[in-house]
C-alpha cells in the first residue's frame, strides 16, 4: 500500500529532482543493515563529506537516515512538547525467553529469528506491552528508551485522536461541514462542503496528485509552500500552508464519502479544525490532553515549516518510553495511572474501525491490507483480520504503534529503513507484529 506522506515528497523530491543530497553510495558498506556507528556517520572533526548528514539527505536518503531519525531537530525548525510534571515509570515483567522464542516469516515466507527480523527491518527500538507491563524491550543503532525518534505519519494518528477527543467534549461534531468551522475553506471544494468526519477518515474527495517527479504536482507544490522543496521559477505559490489548503478542490470522479484516499493535506485540515475550536496549537493540545497525564519524561518535539507552522502530517519525534506509556493507556481503555486520559468510547470507536467499503474502493487497499479486512478511522489504520484485530498508527520507513485490545498486547516499533515503503517491507513488519502477538497471547 502506498503510504503517502509529506516526508516522501521531501526526500524523494530533494534527492531525485533537486540533486541536493550527498550520494548515498558514498557511505554504504557491504552490510546493508549497518548501523550509523558502523557507517561512521557524523564522526570526526570535521566530519568527512561522504559521512556528513545534512538537511538535504536527512529525511529519506539511505543510509544517512540511520543517524538522522534520532536528530531531526538539528536540521529543521521544531517546537517542544513538555514532559509531565512528574514521570510515571511503566512496570516491567521482562520475559527472558522472548527473543529466542519469537519466529517471524519474512515476505517470502521464510522463517527468521527475532534477531534477524529486527536487523532485516532496520529496527532502532521495540517495546512490547502485555496488559500494563513492559515484557520486552530492545534498542539498536544507538537508540535508548529516552531518545526521540522521527515518527513520520504516526503524527497523523495523534491529530486524529485529539479531534475525536474534541468531538467527545462537544466542541464540534463529525456531521458538521468543515467550511462552517473554518470559513476560510468554504471556497475549497475538497473541504468546504465535506463533513469533519469525512476529512477525519480521509473519504472526502480531493484532486491531489502525488507525483514526486513532476514539479507541478500537488505534493511538490505542497512541499514548496512549506519551504522544504524547490520552488519553480515563474510560479506564484501560496505564501503559507493555510493559503495553500484553500486552493484544493474536489475530484470530479468521486463524491465525498465514497472512497478512502490517503492524502497528507487532509490531516492539516483536521489539525486546523482542532486549532480553531481549541485556540491551541497541536503541541499545546497534545500536552494538555495526553503528555501531561501520561507521566512522560525527556524530550518530545514536532517539526515546523519555514513559517513556524506545524506540519501535522509527519513531524512528531517521540521516545520509545513515552510512546509505550501512550500505547499502554490506549490498550487499557484510555486509563493510565488511575486516570481516564482518553474516554473509553473513543478507544472503542477506533477499534471498531471505519467504512470498509470506502476502504475497499480505495487505491490504497492492497494485498497486505485488503479492503475486506482493513479500514481507516480518524487517522488510524484498523485491521479486522480474524485473530489479528488491531488499530495501528503507521509511518513510513518502519514506524508502528500497534494496539491489539482483544489479546491485550501493544507494540511500539521504530526503524530507519532505507526505503519509505515497499509491499515486502510492510509484509515483513506486519508478520513480525502478529508473530509477537501470537507468542505473547499464548504465554
From TrEMBL:
Keywords: Hydrolase, Signal. Residues 1-21 form the signal peptide. The keyword Glycosyltransferase does not apply. InterPro entries: Beta-lactam-related (IPR001466), Beta-lactam/transpept-like (IPR012338), Diverse_Enzym_Activities (IPR050789). GO terms for molecular function: hydrolase activity. PANTHER family: BETA-LACTAMASE-RELATED (PTHR43283), BETA-LACTAMASE-RELATED DOMAIN-CONTAINING PROTEIN (PTHR43283:SF7). This is 6-aminohexanoate-dimer hydrolase. It comes from Paraferrimonas sedimenticola.
Amino acid at each position: 500500500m502506498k503510504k503517502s506522506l509529506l516526508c516522501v515528497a521531501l526526500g524523494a523530491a530533494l534527492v531525485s529532482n533537486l540533486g541536493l543530497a550527498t550520494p548515498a553510495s558514498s557511505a554504504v558498506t557491504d552490510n546493508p543493515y549497518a548501523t550509523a556507528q558502523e557507517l561512521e556517520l557524523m564522526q570526526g572533526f570535521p566530519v568527512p563529506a561522504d559521512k556528513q548528514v545534512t538537511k538535504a539527505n536527512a529525511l529519506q536518503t539511505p543510509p544517512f537516515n540511520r543517524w538522522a531519525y534520532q536528530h531531526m531537530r538539528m536540521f529543521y525548525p521544531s517546537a517542544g512538547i513538555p514532559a509531565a510534571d512528574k514521570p510515571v515509570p511503566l512496570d516491567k515483567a521482562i520475559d527472558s525467553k522472548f527473543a529466542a522464542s519469537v519466529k517471524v516469516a519474512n515476505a517470502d515466507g521464510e522463517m527468521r529469528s527475532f534477531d534477524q527480523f529486527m536487523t532485516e527491518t532496520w529496527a532502532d527500538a521495540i517495546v512490547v506491552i502485555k496488559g500494563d507491563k513492559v515484557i520486552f524491550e530492545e534498542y539498536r543503532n544507538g537508540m535508548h528508551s529516552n531518545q526521540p525518534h522521527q515518527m513520520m505519519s504516526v503524527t497523523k494518528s495523534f491529530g486524529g485522536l485529539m479531534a475525536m477527543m474534541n468531538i467527545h467534549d462537544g466542541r464540534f461534531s463529525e456531521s458538521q461541514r468543515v467550511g462552517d468551522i473554518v470559513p476560510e475553506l468554504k471556497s475549497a471544494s475538497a473541504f468546504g462542503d465535506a463533513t469533519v468526519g469525512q476529512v477525519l477518515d480521509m473519504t472526502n474527495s480531493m484532486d491531489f496528485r502525488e507525483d514526486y517527479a513532476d514539479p507541478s504536482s500537488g505534493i511538490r507544490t505542497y512541499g514548496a509552500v512549506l519551504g522544504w522543496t524547490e520552488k519553480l521559477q515563474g510560479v506564484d505559490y501560496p505564501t503559507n500552508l493555510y493559503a495553500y489548503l484553500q486552493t484544493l478542490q474536489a475530484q470530479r470522479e468521486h463524491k465525498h464519502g465514497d472512497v478512502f484516499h490517503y492524502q497528507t493535506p487532509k490531516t492539516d485540515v483536521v489539525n486546523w479544525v482542532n486549532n480553531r475550536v481549541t485556540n491551541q496549537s497541536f503541541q499545546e493540545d497534545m500536552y494538555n490532553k495526553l503528555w501531561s497525564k501520561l507521566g512522560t519524561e525527556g524530550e518530545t518535539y514536532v517539526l515546523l515549516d519555514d513559517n513556524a507552522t506545524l506540519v501535522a502530517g509527519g513531524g512528531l519525534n517521540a521516545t520509545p518510553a513515552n510512546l509505550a506509556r501512550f500505547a499502554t493507556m490506549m490498550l487499557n481503555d484510555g486509563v493510565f495511572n488511575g486516570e481516564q486520559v482518553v474516554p473509553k468510547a473513543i478507544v472503542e470507536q477506533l477499534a471498531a474501525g471505519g467504512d470498509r467499503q470506502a476502504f475497499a474502493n480505495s487505491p490504497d487497499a492492497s494485498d497486505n491490507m485488503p479492503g475486506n479486512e482493513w479500514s481507516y478511522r480518524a487517522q488510524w489504520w484498523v485491521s479486522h483480520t480474524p485473530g489479528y484485530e488491531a488499530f495501528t498508527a503507521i509511518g513510513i520507513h518502519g514506524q508502528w504503534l500497534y494496539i491489539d485490545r482483544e489479546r491485550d498486547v501493544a507494540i511500539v516499533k521504530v526503524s530507519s529503513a532505507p526505503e519509505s515503503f515497499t509491499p515486502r517491507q510492510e509484509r515483513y513488519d506486519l508478520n513480525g507484529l502478529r508473530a509477537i502477538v501470537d507468542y505473547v497471547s499464548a504465554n
